[in-house]
Amino acid sequence: MIVIDIEATGVNPQKNSIVSLGALDLDNPENQFYDECRVWEGAHVETKALAVNGFSEEEIADPTKKTEAELVKAFIAWAMDRVEERTIAAQNVSFDHDMLRMACQRAGIEFPFAKRTIDVHTLVWTHMKVKGKIPPVAHNHSAIDMTYALSYCGLPPEPRPHNALTGAFCHAEVISRIAYNRKLLPDFDTYDIPWMS
Predict the structure, then answer these.
(1) C-alpha pair distances (Å), 150 with each of 78, 103, 170, 191
(2) Does residue 153 contact residue 127 with C-beta atoms inside 8 Å?
(3) Domains of the chain, first to last
(4) Which run of H or of E encompasses 89?
């Protein structure tokens, strides 16, 4: 399983650009990918998005960085060459999946990943229900965001700003704790799994 996190200039796959992509193989978490790129010409850049990922306007326009197309090609090469089970997983996985798919479309390359994905939100919601807990609700829908998922699993919040690889680490650790009742990454080893204590 490829646990992925994409940082972008916004949340619209058609208008916004990827700025960084982090991933790891859940079956072999030392097998990791991280890279950054400059935005494609004409991409919309939202100030709020840059506040989350910590990139400056100068950094995302840096001509020495790879293009979005080059980043996506490098990620796909890593995934095809170094990961056997290629189901995409993430918190709000539809965002990452759609951003990656649109970046491939812009680059004129085939999108090699399946539609079936694993969503951290759904795993946490289901785990809570099975344990007889009531998932949080806000504005008449689930309020399980990444901060809540991490806390539920006994983990600290993501650093702010964070890059895509630290995001992928957080997603992978939550997935491992929920799906397998085990810790995954050394960075989180000192944090106990609440329901295993």
Answers:
(1) 27, 29, 7, 11
(2) no
(3) 2-196 (3.30.420.10)
(4) strand 88-90
